[in-house]
Design a protein that fits this description.
single chain, Rossmann fold, 11 helices
């Protein structure tokens, strides 16, 4: 199963989504591959940090990119859980340009392959769209993200013409946490009236410090201490499962 996290605009939480969805699926016991198809290599660097932390948990040896201060900075509750339960492995790789062979190989080795592409109409975005089973399009509830929608729709329509069965789901990300905020509701309504992006996840990913904090240690929010953030990606994974079942 290949899931793409992509979109036209940078900074819309594509890497955050790909990383934390990978962490949630691995926690559930699936073999997970995370393909970083972005020249910034944020997701690949996260996997390297995770592998360093795994090595520390298994051997006590601290390897780059982590150092002793990083280990000491991990909250005691989180570290205690990691020492008790371990850390689930995720296969990570960085590849850009012609990524078809990499996608095929990683998909063969894993139950789920999550692909993180950079923002914009890139070669990697087009190729991943042409091979994925589901495309998750994270968008922040802001006018800057909404302004990218027309070009994004053109890309998605071209792909749909060749692959009409691909699931395209929009994910509202980095939303205000204030219960009284109506920004998310208005944005979701606008998307519901937009071709190709009207199939919006019920789950909304809020703007939480936990999403930034855990990345520094190669952890996902599933490994962290924020129950609200954990619940968001647990619900997102379940919605993905529901879409997969519906498509069969």
């Amino acid at each position: 199963m290949i899931i793409l996290c992509g979109g036209e605009k940078g900074g819309s939480a594509k890497s955050t989504t790909a990383i934390n969805l990978s962490g949630e699926l691995a926690y559930l016991g699936y073999k997970v591959g995370l393909l970083d198809a972005d020249k910034k290599t944020s997701a690949k660097n996260w996997v390297l940090t995770r592998e360093s932390l795994q090595n520390y948990l298994e051997t006590g040896e601290i390897l780059a990119p982590l150092d002793i201060e990083d280990i000491q900075d991990i909250p005691k509750q989180v570290m205690a859980n990691l020492k008790k339960n371990g850390l689930k492995s995720i296969e990570g790789k960085n590849s850009t340009g012609e990524i078809i062979d990499t996608i095929v190989a990683m998909n063969d080795r894993n139950d789920f392959l999550i692909i993180d592409v950079g923002g914009g109409d890139t070669v990697e975005f087009r190729l991943a769209l042409g091979m994925c089973d589901m495309a998750i399009i994270p968008l922040k509830p802001s006018i800057l993200d909404y302004d990218t929608v027309p070009k994004l729709i053109r890309i998605l329509k071209l792909n749909q013409a060749a692959r009409p069965k691909v699931k395209v789901k929009t994910l509202i990300s980095d939303a205000p946490t204030a219960p009284a905020s109506n920004v998310t509701r208005k944005f979701k309504k606008a998307l519901s009236e937009t071709a190709m992006l009207s199939n919006v996840f019920k789950t909304v990913i809020k703007n939480r410090d936990s999403y930034k904090e855990c990345l520094n240690y190669g952890l996902s929010v599933r490994d962290w201490k924020d129950s609200s953030a954990k619940a968001e990606f647990s619900m997102l994974a379940q919605e993905c499962f529901d879409e997969i079942k519906e498509g069969k």
